[in-house]
Amino acid sequence: MYTQADKRCSLNELVAHVKNGDCVAIGGGLSWREPMAALRELIRQDIKGLKLVGSAHGIDVDLLCGAGMVAASAESYVGFEQDFGMAINYRRACEAGTVKVEDNCCYSLVQQLRAAISGLPFMPIRSVQGTDFMQLHPEFKTMICPFTGEQLVLVPALKPDVAILHAHYADQHGNLHIEGPPVADILFAKASKKVVATVEEIISNDELAQKGVTIPYFYVTAISEVPYGAHPTSCYPLYAYDRKHTDRYYQAAKHGMDSFRENYLNPFVYDCQNQDRYIEAIGGKAALSSLEGWDESIEQWMQLYE
Predict the structure, then answer these.
(1) pLDDT 10s digits, 195-249
(2) Potential cystine with 87: which of 51, 62, 70, 95 (Cβ 3.0-4.6 Å)?
(3) 201 within some domain
(4) Do 48 and 170 share a domain, yes or no?
(5) 130 and 163 share a domain?
(6) Do 131 and 189 reside in the same domain of the chain?
(7) What pTM value is reported for the model?
(8) Confidence band (pLDDT; 50, 70, 90) for 127?
């Protein structure tokens, strides 16, 4: 339990809570509210050998794989959905064997987190039977239910070393407010040993209380105010997904690792010592204004996807 009165710190200090070889849960999902600024800093700090756990993810996991930070992936899905398709760096790393594939499904992950939260060694599920998940996860066991006589799968508790989240708002104590779907963030926060969070804005405790507490302060280890910290993923209602930037990312990854390093990692990660430099690299405030104005009209929103 973390009860410091003031948990504010720099992004550099925040990410330093992650250590080589940690099991890391990444908040958000797909192209929504992923902690991208924190992940870029994680790459700059050269924190490697990570095992990533999560539900459905995209550019966040792909970026870490492209930078060589990942040893194993226990995600349920990694891709760019119908917009761009496969996650190229992730697939390349898995096929090369540099990332161990421990694919999971959303519900087995949820039950594993619930087991950790409840202080139990495992939770039962009905799903994944008849699939190859049992071969991917020899730690999963089966049992005959003493009440119904049906066969169940038992999944062990999962307690990530660190959960990295991005929220809309926080107060200095570490209370977090998320607008919209929390995805698995609440479960991650409750199950993980540490929780570090970037937020769009740090506000007063009274303002935070009026908005509502999504994740209470006592789960949260440290917070850092990082505006646009989810870019290029969305953080609705504040800003939309940056398709143009994602296309640039995808094209760089598509042409191999040398291209990805030269055309993406160098200009947008290694050459940007902080978030301000990153914002400058992507085109500054002018590039972000259209993302912020996504809700002005249907036409404005549709232009973002042309």
Answers:
(1) 999 999 999 999 999 999 999 999 999 999 999 999 999 999 999 999 999 999 9
(2) 62
(3) yes
(4) yes
(5) no
(6) no
(7) 0.96
(8) confident
Q: Which of 270, 249, 271 is nearest to 260 (CA)?
A: 249
Domain count, the chain: 2
Shortest CA distance to 100 belongs to which of 132, 78, 71? 71
CA angle 247, 249, 255 (to 5 degrees): 100
- State the amino acid at position 274 in one-letter form: N
DSSP string for 181-203: --TTHHHHHHHSSEEEEEEEEE-
Query: Residue 30: pLDDT above 80?
Result: yes
Element spanning 78, H or E: strand 77-78
Nearby residues of 302 by Cβ (< 8 Å), 6 or more positions away: none
Residue 3 lies in a domain: no
How many whole angstroms separate alpha carbon 166 and alpha carbon 218? 17
The residue behind tokens 């937020």 is: 199
Indicate the residue type of 131. T
Phi/psi region, residue 185 (left: phi>0; alpha: psi -120 to 50; beta: rest), is: alpha
**How many Cβ atoms from other residues are within 10 Å of residue 143's Cβ?**
12
Residue 135's pLDDT band (cuts 50, 70, 90)? confident
Please check whether residues 145 and 179 belong to one and the same domain. no
The CATH number linked to 257 is: 3.40.1080.10
Structural tokens at position 163: 């959960």
Residue 59 shares a structural domain with residue 179: yes
Same domain assignment for residues 136 and 253: no
Examine the pLDDT at 188 and tell me if it is beyond 90.
Answer: yes
- Return the structure tokens found at 185: 């963030």
Residues 23, 139 within the same domain: no
Q: Beta-carbon neighbour count of residue 10 at 10 Å?
A: 14
Whether pLDDT at 2 is above 90? no
DSSP string, 80-122: -HHHH-B-HHHHHHHHHTSSEE----HHHHHHHHHHHHHT-SE
Domain that holds residue 150: 124-156
In a domain, 37, yes or no: yes
